[in-house]
């Protein structure tokens, strides 16, 4: 979509907006569908719902680290911080 279309105000000169004009029509001409699983069904989908992926990053805020590891207020939070693995190449 470009400048003359309704309901679109470009921020920069020559900026185009990618907009879906198909609505809810799904057929063989579409190359990609972006989906989100909302509810788990009776059977697992192999490779998607049968595996659990651990969280890559832990919490940064001290109160959330207390909550995750069931720590008291007196415990030192710095010992429980989950750090990203540092890749030292180059």
Automatic annotation (TrEMBL):
Keyword Hydrolase on entry: no
InterPro entries: Ribosomal_eS6
GO terms (BP aspect): translation
Keyword vocabulary terms for this entry: Ribonucleoprotein, Ribosomal protein
Gene3D superfamilies: 1.20.5.2650
One GO cellular component term: ribonucleoprotein complex
GO molecular function: structural constituent of ribosome
Family listed: Belongs to the eukaryotic ribosomal protein eS6 family.
Name assigned to this protein: Small ribosomal subunit protein eS6
Organism: Spermophilus dauricus (Daurian ground squirrel)
